[in-house]
Amino acid sequence: MKTEYPVIKGEKVYLRPTVESDLVTFAEWESRPEVQAFFTMNYDRSLKDVASEVHGRAGDPGCADFTVCALEDDRLLGRVYISAINHHYDSMDISRIYIGDLSERGKGYGEDALRCALDLGFGRMGMERITLDYVNGNDSAHALYLKVGFRDEGRMRNAGKKNGGYVDLNLMSILRDEYAQNL
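Predicted structure:
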């Protein structure tokens, strides 16, 4: 059975479960080079691809899609996709997190969205461990992840696929007690 998730409020943003009308905006963002550059998504990404992904996970209790919205005016800012939700091991993975519009970056929205995702995992779901990964060269994301308490675990060779080729991904994790120290 699919879990129903609440709205998670931060200081600048809130995360709400993704709805069908968000997919058009996701597809627009994910067709932009500045979003595609640091994700394992092909350059020819379309609305059909985004919809297929989201609809394909719709009944999977191990996945959750969220839309990042501005608290001040409800405008769509980004996306958070959580996967590998495992209640036996009390772990999950933040598989995709981004602010879609370049003009909205650097304003603290991404950090706040990440903190909301961590609040969901540790505070509401009782997780012990949360992981994420990033593509080589995404230094600003790496700095943000370190800032909120993630630790480097190592490089996963050929762990992602993009445009028909394999890419290495850098794995990071944060544990519940590390999260509590960074509140």
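Summary: Strands lie at 8-9, 13-17, 64-70, 76-86, 91-99, 129-135, 151-162, 165-175.
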